[in-house]
């Protein structure tokens, strides 16, 4: 079970890092701006489902192994829910209605949350190593 929890945590860490750093950058590099925006917007529900699912499953396994790692994974899972269901729609609304200041603020907050998730998952990997 320890191997599975390490693998899931590494999968979460790597997936979040790749999506947040590489995926968006490449979409805007190789696609027209309007298409890239729509593409990124349509992929975020899958991203948040991925983060929630992996962190939730991993936290169940970690409950029996390492309580500190379990708590960090639960934090990731729980904070993903409002980010997906409240923050992302607010960001999209701000973008659609050209509320630039609000968009920048909300988008920056979502970036900080994702960065915190990446750091938390890296911390879990450290705890498990």
Topology (SSEs and partners):
Elements: H1 2-30, H2 33-63, H3 67-96, H4 100-128
Helix pairs in contact: 1-2, 1-4, 2-3, 3-4
Could you explain how this protein is built, in words?
With 129 residues, this protein is mainly alpha-helical. It has one domain (2-128). Helix content is 92%, strand content 0%. It has helices at residues 2-30, 33-63, 67-96, 100-128. The protein is elongated. It starts with a helix and ends with a helix. 21% of the residues are buried.
User: Largest sheet, if any?
Assistant: none
Overall pLDDT score = 96
| Apparent shape | elongated
Return the structural class. mainly alpha
What is the CA-based Rg, rounded? 16 Å
Helical amount = over 70%
What proportion strand?
under 5%
Total number of domains: 1
Give, in order, the helices and strands: HHHH
Distance between the termini: 14 Å
Total strand segments: 0
Low-confidence stretches: none
What's the total helix number? 4
In short:
Helix content is 92%, strand content 0%.
Any key phrases for this structure?
129 residues, mainly alpha, 4 helices, 92% helix
């Amino acid at each position: 079970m320890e191997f599975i929890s390490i693998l899931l945590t590494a999968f979460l860490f790597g997936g979040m890092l790749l999506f947040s750093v590489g995926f968006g950058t490449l979409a805007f590099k190789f696609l027209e701006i309007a298409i890239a925006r729509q593409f990124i917007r349509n992929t975020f529900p899958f991203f948040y489902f991925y983060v929630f699912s992996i962190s939730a499953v991993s936290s169940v396994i970690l409950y029996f192994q390492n309580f500190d790692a379990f708590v960090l994974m639960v934090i990731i899972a729980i904070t993903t829910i409002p980010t997906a269901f409240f923050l992302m729609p607010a960001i999209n609304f701000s973008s659609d209605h050209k509320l630039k200041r609000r968009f920048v603020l909300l988008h920056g907050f979502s970036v900080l949350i994702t960065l915190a998730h990446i750091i938390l998952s890296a911390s879990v990997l450290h705890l498990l190593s």
